């Protein structure tokens, strides 16, 4: 599953269809009693049993598409290259390698190549965002204490 490599914004037509589909899907999910309902593909008349959790996940995808948000589906155990990890973090590949070598992010080596688990990259990214937010709050408090910021 390589869908994390293809991240595109939905077109206007896709957005409109996603909004309509999302509303209909949410209404139907609310009426379901089974954990594995059967759905029918109208064009082929094929019936498929699908876990309700997958239908709910489809709802989240449609919601994002309806809002015009780009989205990506990434299997949890996916390993990414250092280049892809750097792109996710918004930094250069050499900077990412320094983070790996310092032990800030876990990685494995396959021959000469480093591989990083996607979930480790996202964990690091979330930790950095939380740290950045705290730094901003600290700066604002400092400015307030000095009378530079009116609250």
Note down, in words, how this protein is organized.
The protein is an alpha+beta fold. It has two domains: 3-66, no CATH class; 79-145. Helix content is 54%, strand content 13%. It has five helices and five strands; from the N terminus they run αββαβααββα. The protein has helices spanning 12-31, 52-66, 82-89, 93-102, 118-145; strands spanning 38-41, 46-49, 79-81, 108-110, 113-117. Strands 3-5-4 form a three-stranded antiparallel β-sheet. A two-stranded antiparallel ribbon has the order 1-2. Strand 4 and strand 5 form a beta hairpin. Helix 1 runs antiparallel to helix 2 (52-66) and helix 3 crosses helix 4. Mean pLDDT is 87; it is low at 1-5.
Low-confidence parts lasting 5 or more residues at pLDDT below 50?
A: 1-5
Estimate what percentage of residues fall within beta strands. Answer: 5-15%
Instruction: Describe the strand arrangement of the main beta sheet, using strand numbers.
Output: 3-5-4
Largest sheet: 3 strands, antiparallel
Mean pLDDT: 87
Q: Output the radius of gyration.
A: 22 Å
Shape from CA axes?
extended
Q: Give me the strand/helix succession.
A: HEEHEHHEEH
Q: Determine the number of helices (DSSP H or I, runs of at least 4 residues).
A: 5
Strand tally is 5
């Amino acid at each position: 599953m390589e869908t994390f490599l293809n991240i595109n914004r939905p077109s206007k037509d896709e957005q409109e269809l996603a909004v309509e589909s999302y509303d209909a899907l949410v209404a139907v999910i609310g009426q379901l009693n089974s954990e594995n309902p059967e759905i029918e593909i109208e064009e082929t008349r094929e019936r498929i049993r699908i876990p309700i959790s997958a239908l709910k996940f489809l709802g989240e995808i449609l919601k994002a598409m309806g809002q015009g948000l780009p989205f990506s589906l990434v299997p949890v155990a996916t390993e990414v290259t250092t280049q892809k990890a750097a792109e996710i973090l918004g930094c250069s590949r050499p900077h990412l390698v320094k983070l790996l070598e310092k032990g800030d992010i876990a990685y494995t080596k396959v021959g000469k190549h480093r591989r990083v688990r996607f979930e480790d990259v996202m964990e690091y990214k979330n930790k950095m965002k939380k740290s950045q937010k705290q730094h901003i709050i600290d700066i604002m408090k400092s400015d307030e204490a000095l009378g530079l910021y009116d609250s």
